What does this fold into?
Amino acid sequence: MTRKTRTNALFLCNAAAIAAIYAVLTVACWSFSSMQIQVRISEALCILPLFTPAAVPGLFLGCAAANMIAGNIPDAIFGSLTTLAAATLTWLIGRLFRGNARIALGPLPAVVLNALTVPLIIYYGYGEKDFLGFSDTLPVLALFALSVFIGQTIACYAIGVPLYFAIKPLQARHGLFGPGSGDAGTSGPAPRE
It folds into this structure.
């Protein structure tokens, strides 16, 4: 097997493993992973593009699988595309920033993009038209956005950042995502912090 073949196989395995973990976590915790008030624990994995580009398709496919299992087509499409965009931006942040900036900014795309799109999915895709006694469209969407923002902040920062610090030494010592994958999914050694 050539080096390129091994690298491609490792990328696919990493993406598949991340997709499976994301989907299983989402479905297993579904009661608090969806709708108006949610903390989708699997969103903590949105920190993984800082370690490997394989997390980008992995998170997208995991989100798509979980949302398809839930049976909501708009969520499966738009929720998954939001996750793809957030994962891509997180990977770019990993390439552009080092040190504390990467840790502070890495989870931000998942928090912001989901706070902007998930309220629309809940409102139009799931048909939830009221929240906390409000039924006018704009206040309901604003409350959904605030709720999703808080839930995403918990998942991505309170859980995702500790996950980053748990994975970082494993990546440095054992090449968790493969030899040469580096801290930010770049080829070559991990950047110094």
About this structure: The CA atoms of residues 123 and 129 lie 6 Å apart. Residues 3-33+40-174 form one domain. Helices lie at 3-28, 55-70, 73-96, 99-105, 108-125, 137-174. The radius of gyration is 17 Å.
